[in-house]
Design a protein that fits this description.
- This is Peptidase S1 domain-containing protein.
- With 286 residues, the chain is an alpha+beta fold.
- It folds into 2 domains: 89 residues, Beta Barrel (Thrombin, subunit H); 123 residues, Beta Barrel (Thrombin, subunit H).
- It is 13% helix and 30% strand.
- The N and C termini lie far apart (71 Å).
- The N terminus is likely disordered.
């Protein structure tokens, strides 16, 4: 019985009275310690530990590099909507999915970058040029600079391996409506088992250049007129979250198709920012 309490950590070896140290005899205490199931104290401890393991998210701090792209509203052509996600990778460069670049259509082409996930937003900066990578990623050059504090930390392989969870961060979607931001936990799927049915002009999708993930407990849309999480078409950004709550950027949703998935747990690709060719593209002279 003493051993079971020591294993359950309701007793320590030092608290047990030794009757005869030479013969290693152990005397039972007069009253047994209270069982964890009958005490509220362990529940308080558990709550405390849960808070330590799940630090609260301050989006403006954790995701200070996240931004949205401003488009001309296709319904009215005289107002604006903030639709796709982007991230600041240099003080004057924002990165997004090629799907959100709209390079061949002025209505689908964003005009400005707005830094921040929630109000108060940072200043909007106008876009002045773009650079394409493999019909997969696009860099927008900005007319002025953001603060260096807004620059995203791109993950190393060690960051990815030590992460506590993976989170896709972006903006919910609804035609003509400015929806709020979301974070959606995802999990890696073995690349060979990835089931992607829609394809685009992106070339060379393989395990060294892309991640395959699937959402975990994706909430269902509450109605036909509500905003909904669209990880791929909204250019969501894949983050590796560490135990201390900090996050680095691992990838951007790959534009393998324009529509949102009907299945909440459908697989999708993220273009890896750990890939040397992508890093050269970002770090090149633009």
């Amino acid at each position: 019985m003493i051993a079971s309490h020591i294993l359950r950590q309701t007793l320590t070896q030092e608290s047990v009275v030794q009757c005869n140290v030479a013969e290693q005899l152990v005397c039972c205490p007069h009253t047994l310690p209270q069982s964890p199931s009958s005490s509220t104290q362990p529940l308080k401890s558990s709550t405390h530990y849960a808070a330590v393991l799940e630090p609260p998210t301050d989006p403006q701090r954790t995701y200070a590099h996240m931004a949205s792209l401003r488009y001309l509203s296709p319904e009215t052509l005289d107002s604006y909507v903030y639709r796709c996600a982007a991230l600041v990778v240099r003080v004057n460069l924002a990165l997004t999915s090629a799907y959100c670049a709209g390079l061949d259509d002025v209505v689908k082409m964003p005009s400005r970058v707005r830094l921040g996930l929630v109000a108060p937003f940072q200043e909007e900066l106008a876009i002045n040029g773009s650079f394409d990578y493999n019909s997969d990623l696009v860099l927008f050059r900005l007319t002025r600079n953001y603060s260096s504090e807004a620059i995203a930390k791109i993950c190393s392989q060690q960051d990815l391996d030590s992460s506590r969870k993976l989170m896709a961060v972006g903006f919910a979607q609804k035609n003509g409506v400015n929806c709020g931001w979301f974070e959606q936990e995802v999990s890696l799927r073995p690349f060979a088992a990835c089931n992607i049915t829609a394809w685009s002009g992106v070339r060379g999708i393989e395990s060294q250049t892309h991640f395959c993930v699937y959402p975990i407990h994706m909430p269902a849309a509450t109605g036909s007129g509500s905003c909904f999480r669209c990880l791929r078409a909204g250019a969501s950004v894949l983050h590796a979250v560490q135990a201390d709550g900090s996050a680095c950027v691992a990838g951007v949703a790959t534009p393998t198709g324009g529509r949102c998935y009907n299945a909440a747990n459908a697989d999708l690709y993220y273009t890896s920012l750990l890939n040397g060719n992508v890093l050269d593209f970002i770090n090149g002279s633009h």
